[in-house]
Structure prediction request, 626 residues.
Amino acid sequence: MGQTLDFARISGRQILRRRARLILTILGIAVGVAAVVAIVSLGEGIRAHSIEMISEQSDLTLIEVTGDVRDGAIIPLTTAKVAALRGITHVRGTAPVITVDLATPHQTYIGAVGIGWDDFSTVFTPDFSKGRGYSENSDTAVLGSEIAESLRKYEGIRVGDDLTIRIREYDASGAPVDTEVVFPVAGSLRPRGDMFDTLLVTDSTHLEEWREGYGVYDTIYLRVDAPEHVFAVADAVRGLGLQAQGPFEEIKAVNRLMDAVIIILSFFTGISLIVGAMMIINTMMVSVYERTREIGITMALGASQRHVLTLILLECLYIGILGGIAGDILGVLLSMGINTLGKSFIIEQLGPGFAGFASADITLVTPALLAAGLGIAVILSLLAGIYPGLKAARLNPVDAIRRGM
Amino acid sequence: MAETILETVRLVRTYAGGVQALKGVSIQVPKSKCTAIIGKSGSGKSTLMNILGCLDAPTSGEVFIRGVPVDYTDTARLIDLRRNEIGFVFQQFNLIPHLSAQENVEYPLLFSYRPEKERKDHASALLARVGLEHRGSHYPGELSGGEQQRVAIARALISEPAVVLADEPTGNLDSRTSDDILDLIHEINRKEGTTFLIVTHDADLGDRVDHQITLHDGGVI
Ligand SMILES: Nc1ncnc2c1ncn2[C@@H]1O[C@H](COP(=O)(O)OP(=O)(O)O)[C@@H](O)[C@H]1O
Ligand SMILES: [Mg+2]
Prediction:
C-alpha cells in the first residue's frame, strides 16, 4: 500500500515536469468526454421529458392482465390466478372483471363491466360527480361520465333512475326472446380519461349470466404500489403464463428508442475520444523516448519490467482522472449551453407564450453519466498507456543508459 | 588473501556486429577491498561492468557473486541481484532529475518495498556519510558535479550491496573534484568495508586501491 503511494507520487512528479504538454493531453481526452457527456445529457433530457409526459397522461401503475395462448393452449383467468396475482409483491389491488355488451330498448349500446365494488375502489379509486357506488351483490350500477351524459340526453335517464336493458336471447327454434332487466343508477363518475368514461360498472354476479367468454374472468386489472415496480410486477405476471399490458409499455418503447438514439450519437461523438486516446499514446511515446536513460537507470537500480510499466500506467491514470474530471466539467458547461440555446430556440419557434414550457431543462446530466465520463477517460488512458508502457518496460537497460538523452 | 566476493571465469562477450569486446576474462574481486580496472578506451571495461552488474549477459563464461553462479537466463533473479547485490555509480551521475537528493538516494529501496521510515532514515544517514546532510532537499540541477556524484555514491550504498560498481566515476569531473570523490570512496571502503570495483583511467590512484586489473583489447594483462 505504502509502495503504491510512493509509485503514485513518483509518477505524479513525472507528469508535472511537462505541464503544457500535460494540459494539452488532458484537454485532448477532456474534449472527447465533454462531447459524449453533452450529447448523452441531451438524449437523457429528451428521455426524461418523454417519460414525464407519458407519466402525466397515463396511468403507469395499472397493469391489464389477460389470458395467454401458449403452445396452442389457452391459459384462462381463474380465481386461482387472481389469488396468485394478489400474491405478487408490490401488487396493491386486483380487480378481476367480466365484460358484457348491453343495449337499451331504444338501441343505445352500453359496454358493461362487472367488478366487485371493493376491487373497483382499490384499483380504480372512483370519484363521483353524482350519487355513490353500487353495493356488493346488488343490481345497482354506476355510469361513466360520457355514457351518463348520452343516456341523460337521449333517454332522459339520470342518477337515481332505473336503467332498463333489453337482453335478446334465442330459443331452440331460433326465435328471439327478449328479457328486460333493470339497473338502478346509483351514481355517475367524473371524467377519468380512461375506458370507464364510456362504461357501465356494476357487480359482477349480476352480469355473469349474459357473459360469453372463456375462463372465469375476461381481464384482471392490477394496481401496483409505485411506478418503479411496474416492470418487475409485469414480469412476474408473465411468469404466471399470462399477458401483462398497460401504459407502462410506452415507457419501455421510449426507453428502447432513446437507448438506440443515445448509442448512435455517442458512437459518433466517441470518435473524438479515439483522437484523445491517440494523443495520450503520442504523449507517452515521446515521454518514454525522452526518458530512455532514466528508465534504464531505474532498471539498473533494481526496478522490474512490471515496476516500469506500473509507473507509466500510473501517469496515464492521472491523465485519465484529470481528463475525465475536466471532460465532465466541460460537458456540464456544454450541456448548460445547449439548454440556454435550446430554450431560446423553442421560445423563438413557438412564441413567448411557450416560455413556461421552456423553463424545464432540455438536457439532463445524471451522476451516472458523470461517472461514466470519468470511467471512459480512465479506461481509455490506461489502454493508451499499454503500448508506450510495454515499450518502456522492454528497453534494454544497457542501451537505454548509453543511448539515452 | 581475502575472501572473493565476485569472480568471472573465461568471460566472453561478442556483440551483434561481431565485435568481441571480452575475450575470456577471468578476474577475482576480493571482499571489502577496492579494486580498480584500468585500460584504454574500447578495451572492454564497460562491457565487463555491465555483465557484472547483471545488465548484460555474457556470450560464454561464468560469473559468481558470493560464490553463487549467476544464471543470466533467469530474469527475475537478475533483477533481484541488481536490487540487492549490486550498487551502480555512473560516469554521468545519472540521478533522476525530478527527485531531490534525498529521494534519489531512497529511490532503489522503492523497488524492494522497504517501509518509508526505514528508507528515509537510511538515506539521511548516507547523505551525511557523503557530506551532504544539508543538501537533501536539493534537486540534481542545483548540485555541482562532485555533489551529484556523492549523491550517486550514497544511492549505490543504500541497498548494502555486495559490491559497488563504478564505471569511470570521475570521468566527468575536474581533477580536484575527482580526487575528493576517490578519497570518499577510499574512506568508505576503509571504514565500512564496502567492496568497490572502479573503472578508471586516473593514473593517480596511488594507494587508494588495493588491487589493480588491466584490460587490453578484451583480455586481462
Ligand atoms: N552495444 C554494442 N554493440 C556493438 N559494439 C559495442 C557495443 N558496446 C560496446 N561495443 C564495442 O565493444 C568494445 C568495448 O567497448 P566498451 O566495453 O565500451 O569499452 P570501454 O568501456 O573500455 O571503453 C568497443 O570496441 C566497442 O565499440
Ligand atoms: Mg567505457
